[in-house]
Amino acid sequence: MAGERLSFGDAADRYDRARPSYPPAGAAWLVGPKPARVLELGAGTGKLTAQVVALGHEVVATDPDDRMLRLLQARVPGAHACSGAAERIPVASRSVDVVVAAQSFHWFDRARALPEIARVLRPGGVLAMVWNVRDEGIPWVRRLGRLIGTQEQERDPVRLLGDDRHFGWVDSASYRHWQDLDRAGLLDLVASRSNVAVMTADEREQTLREVGEMYDGFGRGHDGMRLPYVTRCYRTVVQRQDPEDEAPPDADAEAPPPAEPEDPGTLLIDFR
């Protein structure tokens, strides 16, 4: 899974061009109405980051892939971007109000990530998750799913959280929105998917050819198409924070050690 997770960085520019953003009402619901210190995990190129900063929140955006972070820094200079993974978060304990994961929580090693998320949250803090899900109630969208895969259509945060003792009841909200795509945009969207990025060259070429033929048969030409999504948002409040969670991540963890002090992008960030 790690290789598939990092495959996004190989096509970071395409990912940034092709992936949809999030409905503003959904972004606001995820982080809440009050000014907050928000930590984003797996922030990618900053699609959600930009909206959260625009809402007036202070944002630390992390991603394990530096190629994605470079695009995020260009898109959202108002966010503090730093390299980091959910399993070893480069942020001080009890220092953020909200941790948000947009289209990324399913990639985490949850046995390690959930205690880390609990560690960095202040008491009463919130873990928020969001996924854009194609509306496959529409026949042509369902056909697209058969061509490109539907694994992201089945995210169940209750199952993903399992019986973790750090978090409680999961609240949810859904929002509809659309992405305008021409032929090149649709092909970029498909090519940016992790399962497509790790295909062999022949497999990827065949998938893209079939998607292109589907678009051509759609009959919209240069007018393009509108791809419908349901944005599924989830929030859960931290319930348990252990004394041992007070310390920063153990130096023996698998993630690389922090950089030298002159590199502020990977230092522990203490908001207190």
Key phrases:
single chain; Rossmann fold; seven-stranded mixed beta sheet; 7 strands; 35% helix; disordered N terminus
Number of strands: 7
Distance between the termini: 35 Å
**What is the CATH architecture descriptor?**
3-Layer(aba) Sandwich
Order of neighbouring strands in the sheet with most strands: 3-2-1-4-5-7-6
Low-confidence stretches: 1-7, 247-272
**What share of residues is helical?**
25-40%
Structural classification: alpha/beta
Could you report the average pLDDT, rounded to the nearest whole number? 84
What's the number of structural domains? 1
Number of helices: 11
Layout of SSEs?
Layout: H1 2-6, H2 12-18, H3 24-31, E1 37-41, H4 47-54, E2 58-63, H5 66-75, E3 80-83, E4 96-102, H6 110-120, E5 121-134, H7 139-148, H8 157-161, E6 167-181, H9 183-191, H10 194-197, H11 201-218, E7 225-238
Parallel strand pairs: 1-2, 1-4, 2-3, 4-5
Antiparallel strand pairs: 5-7, 6-7
Structural features, described:
It is a single chain. This protein is an alpha/beta fold and 272 residues long. It has a single domain, classed as 3-Layer(aba) Sandwich (Rossmann fold), CATH 3.40.50.150. It is 35% helix and 24% strand. The chain contains eleven helices and seven strands. It has a seven-stranded mixed sheet. The radius of gyration is 19 Å and the shape is elongated. The N terminus and C terminus are likely disordered.
In short:
This protein is an alpha/beta fold and 272 residues long. Helix content is 35%, strand content 24%.
